[in-house]
Design goal:
The chain has 232 residues and is of the alpha/beta class. The chain contains 8 helices and 7 strands. The structure holds S-adenosylmethionine. This is DUF938 domain-containing protein.
Length: 232
Amino acid sequence: MPANKTPNILSQQRDERRFSPSAERNRVHIYDVIKDLVPAEGLLFEVASGTGDHASWIGPQLAPLIWQTSEYSPEMFPSINSHISYTNSGNLRSPHHVDVTQKGWNLNEDKQQEFDNNIDLITCVNMVHISPWTATLGLMSGAADFLKKNGVLYLYGPFIQNQIETAFSNIQFDISLRQRNSAWGIRKLEDVQQIAKNNDLTLEKVIPMPANNLSLIFRKTSLSKTQTSSLA
Ligand SMILES: C[S@@+](CC[C@H](N)C(=O)[O-])C[C@H]1O[C@@H](n2cnc3c(N)ncnc32)[C@H](O)[C@@H]1O
């Protein structure tokens, strides 16, 4: 049994962990990229934690950095909390309910203030193509507010790149996504980059990943709206 699946004997909670096969495949590669993007002590905010797999496997390796989970779908909360409990690493935080299409990502005023210009790294794995385009718009706008200056937004997933032939598996995946929900679909990297740019997030690096996915690293290069207004 891998170390992170050893039950925390102090916890009497039911095991409600769910496991995502794709997260179990990609987490080692994602860890390799994001470990170099965070300070030893800082704050990482995970948008769309899903089952909680990434938090429980990557999170402890980045301690004492705080890993704040979040999720849109309330039905995933027990799994995320159960992963956190079983992992028993002091740096993992229970999920906030986040809907990136809503102002302030639907966080309450106190949380919005707590995170405002305070996050070192925001991660968002496999959400952009499995949500409406408005989710990408809201993700970028919120990231611009919540990241520290020089903080990073990390996206992982499939994207369509100009001048690079799209893998057949991604073309098929795109068709199946749109059949499931006409608002979903694999996005063009240049469209995502433009929305980021509109929010003062600069695409710094594109890293090819296994299974025709990409890691995208966006950096917040300017002062955010609130910081700028406080200087006026
Ligand atoms: C395919 S799952 C990926 C989950 C996890 N990141 C992973 O890689 O296993 C897509 C995720 O997008 C999230 N999502 C969809 N719409 C959202 C929204 N409006 N705000 C925040 N998250 C959203 C879902 O709740 C879900 O966690």
